[in-house]
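Reading is simple: the token line describes the chain's fold. The lines below illustrate.

. . .
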Amino acid sequence: QVQLVESGGGSVHSGGSLTLSCAASGFTFSGYAMMWYRQIPGKIGRDTVARINGDGSNIYYADFVKSRFVISRDNAKNTLYLQMNNLEPDDSAIYYCVSAHGYWGQGTQVTVSS
């Protein structure tokens, strides 16, 4: 069955960095675009953070990323990444790895303190 397992979340101070990973299994990883979403506490709905197509040649970032985040993938390792730099308190959220065919990971918490 399809599994998406995120890791790498944690607590950092403003200006800090984290790298999230998402280990995928149960499907042909390279055949699907992958996304990172985030759920901010108290906010209705989830925001798309970034998206990458199957071979990594096409990438989209939300405006709020402001060149601070980098999405990447290693198809040989079936793993998706999100490198987050210069983190701000407003980036505090649960971050989810999502496949283009609709599967979600369990999420990983990111907390940024000022």
Observations:
- The chain is about 0% helix and 50% strand.
